[in-house]
Amino acid sequence: MRILLFMLSLAVSVFAQEIIDISVKGISDKQNEGAQQDRLEAILDAKRQACEKAGLTIESKTTVENFEVVYDFVETQAATVLLPGFQLIDIGYVQDGTYQVVLSGKIKVVEEEEQISAKELRYAKSLRDRGKHSECEKILTKYIDSEDKKVSEELKEEAFYYFIKWGYAWDMVESYHKFAAYYPDSKYLPRLEAFAEFAPKPLYQQNEIYKTTVDKWQKTEFKHNDITFTKTIIVLSDTILFKNFRVRDQSLLINYHLFSTDEQQPQTAFHFLIQYYDGDIKQGFSADAVKSVIDYVRVYQKNTSPSFQYSSSGKWFGKYRIKSYQIKGNVPRGEGPFEQSIQFDLYQKSF
């Protein structure tokens, strides 16, 4: 058996897992040691890639002189991340003389417990944990772009990683490609690659039109500033469940109400409320765990335009972003009918 150089150090401290789909091509070398051996080499390569995509880093300089030892080692690691039901499809020998297989299925992505190495970045994390995002972002950006020779490449790499992980990258995919070009051998790449594939897809899309009529008015008492509204129409009241990057249930509570006074020429308003809960709210929760994302009231004075449009470029909260939300409709005066529309996309921005 030929000598194989392999890296045999694996992090074992794990705190989180998620499940993703993978499809990787395993390729043997070109030494052509027989179909059986070449096939095993291709399988080894495919499962090694699966381990790396799962976040198990294989990065020492141990020389292994026995192919079976290497194969058994990678098989053992792959068994911890490959879920049952994966497929191995033989392509066979191709024109360049290599034997190839395709491995597809689901893996459990594991993350090493991250130890932030630099005190500057630990301070940045403390700022982020306290909600001081602009200050945190400034520290990370300072090191990413630094030309100071005292700033190591390791610090720049780590700062760039947390810049993406913590959600400060405006274009996640482009930032991932830039990171991969700068640091092609980084231990962070498997996690960033998995998130870069996930992040561009909306977790939830809202695009609905709601039609209501004057007979939907209900009695209420809603005070805003110096106005007391006495009637309401509940246009939308719903709990939206979605799966995040770690395949855990998340809840978004959406409420949209129209309001009116009882005057002959009434003053009218809408109230748009979105709240967030870290979990499946239908499985039980504590009220203090529900956090407000958007809580907006708009009042329309008498004799104003009968139609309105309210929009915003987006709202960040937790690990998520509501992008380009828009509310349109006609002001709820007179007999109706009233037509309202609510539109936005929800994305995960950090992990």
Residue ranges: pLDDT <50 for 5 or more in a row? 1-16, 59-64
Structural class: alpha+beta
Overall 3D geometry?
Answer: elongated
H and E order: EEHEHEEHHHHHEEEEEEEEE
Q: Care to describe what's here?
A:
Strand 9 (249-260) and strand 10 form a beta hairpin. The protein starts with a strand and ends with a strand. Helix 1 crosses helix 2 (67-81), helix 3 packs antiparallel against helix 4 (133-144) and helix 6 (172-182) runs antiparallel to helix 7. It is of the alpha+beta class and 351 residues long. The protein has helices at 35-53, 67-81, 119-129, 133-144, 153-165, 172-182, 189-198; strands at 4-6, 14-27, 62-64, 87-93, 99-112, 204-212, 218-224, 227-243, 249-260, 268-277, 291-300, 307-317, 320-330, 338-348. The chain folds into three domains: 4-112, Dodecin subunit-like (2-Layer Sandwich); 119-198; 204-348, no CATH class.
Task: Give a short overview.
This protein has 351 residues and is of the alpha+beta class. The protein folds into 3 domains: 4-112, Dodecin subunit-like, CATH 3.30.1660; 119-198; 204-348, no CATH class. The protein has 7 helices and 14 strands.
Describe the SSE topology.
Elements: E1 4-6, E2 14-27, H1 35-53, E3 62-64, H2 67-81, E4 87-93, E5 99-112, H3 119-129, H4 133-144, H5 153-165, H6 172-182, H7 189-198, E6 204-212, E7 218-224, E8 227-243, E9 249-260, E10 268-277, E11 291-300, E12 307-317, E13 320-330, E14 338-348
Antiparallel strand pairs: 1-3, 2-5, 4-5, 6-14, 7-8, 8-9, 9-10, 10-11, 12-13, 13-14
Helix pairs in contact: 1-2, 3-4, 4-5, 5-6, 6-7
